[in-house]
Amino acid sequence: MSEHIVSSYDNDLEDLRRSISEMGGVAEKMMTDASDALVRRDTVLAQNVIVADKRLDALQREIEERAVLLIARRQPLAIDLRETVSAIRVSGDLERIGDLAKNIAKRVVAISDQAQPQKIVLGVQHMSDLVQEQLKDVLDAYGAQDTVAAHDVWERDGAIDALYNSLFRELLTYMMEDPRNISFCTHLLFCAKNVERIGDHTTNIAETIHYLATGETLTAERPKNDASNYATISPQA
Amino acid sequence: MSEHIVSSYDNDLEDLRRSISEMGGVAEKMMTDASDALVRRDTVLAQNVIVADKRLDALQREIEERAVLLIARRQPLAIDLRETVSAIRVSGDLERIGDLAKNIAKRVVAISDQAQPQKIVLGVQHMSDLVQEQLKDVLDAYGAQDTVAAHDVWERDGAIDALYNSLFRELLTYMMEDPRNISFCTHLLFCAKNVERIGDHTTNIAETIHYLATGETLTAERPKNDASNYATISPQA
């Protein structure tokens, strides 16, 4: 293989890394903004999140196309092939994270005229803060191909699920206390669920980092805490 | 290119098609079973759905790996490259459909001891019937590379969204009527949302068929009816 081909191949990989990093930045900002918009009932910020999603979708299509061409033209092997496949996977997860942030933003617009005690939102905010940290850490780990940091993110997903479960129960309780809370709390339930799913996607990215570094699929069961994800509670409880 | 290479390449593509078809069959059955389990409160059937998801996950990993190797080894061009990329995309959507069906099944287990009027479940069942039809039609369209049928599925997603919106309002009303309905109806809301999202994945597959046949991305806006997806209603309404 000539020097020239090797070097333009490296450039292709470097371009992919840059695009993933850009996508990560957009997805992180969308998530932070969606969460801030929810806490502050800021519909302008929410609209920004909705608009930003188009950029993320375009980036994902671009990354997928370039990665496929790279595989077809350069026939990468071993670590290079894994890095290209990983770029496709991670861009898919980031695109989904953007969709979920956009969904939260749309709900902010829907509930903007509802005057509800702020404390109801605080639980979602706390959970969102944790997931934002997960997302930041996993993107750093991907950039650095740091499997230890990735495994740490992977382990922490159980805590997010546990938090979601207690939030789920709390929101049901507010709904039972006062039917005027039902509509608002239902949207918050979906927001919380979206945040939890963003957490799942950070876990996917952590698994991709493991695959990228080792060539193996992480087959251990995820540290799921989702038993009470499906809890029911009664008004008398 | 020798006769031998062409023919083993065709075999590879044929294998991919067969695996996608198998995945489609498993995903369809999971969705039908999850819906039946919900209507009949059949926890045994629900457990079957949960178990079947492992098979779907394994099939997806296998298809992705084989498709990537096929691209790297055979460097397919034009339609063949698109078919291989499409196999990766469709297997991703089918895997997500399986996850959503599994999520419904888990909720069936959670609410199995709740005695609620059956009429509350009927709206979800009706919506699920429509989406099952969409899924069947889009899988047939993929097998036949039938863009007209795919476009028909794509158009019909708007009706599913509209149905979800009216169901959302209906379930909120039941919750406001009687706080004892809240826990049950919350799980049904998530089931309905999952069915709607399965509908979104059938739309994704329809778009992949368009890309496969034409090489172009369907850029028209989806016929979304999601304005009232984010509706709120008040107890006095």
Automatic annotation (TrEMBL), chains A, B:
Localization, UniProt: Cytoplasm
Residue ranges occupied by any PhoU domain in the UniProt entry: 20-108, 125-208
One Pfam family recorded for the sequence: PhoU
Main location: cytoplasm
Keyword Transport: yes
GO terms classed as biological process: intracellular phosphate ion homeostasis; negative regulation of phosphate metabolic process; phosphate ion transport
Annotated keywords: Cytoplasm, Phosphate transport, Transport
The keyword Oxidoreductase is assigned to this record: no
SUPFAM superfamilies, per database record: PhoU-like (SSF109755)
CC annotations in GO: cytoplasm
Subunit structure: Homodimer.
Role this protein plays: Plays a role in the regulation of phosphate uptake.
Sequence similarity: Belongs to the PhoU family.
Matching NCBIfam families: phoU_full
Name of the protein in its database record: Phosphate-specific transport system accessory protein PhoU
Lineage: Bacteria, Pseudomonadati, Pseudomonadota, Alphaproteobacteria, Hyphomicrobiales
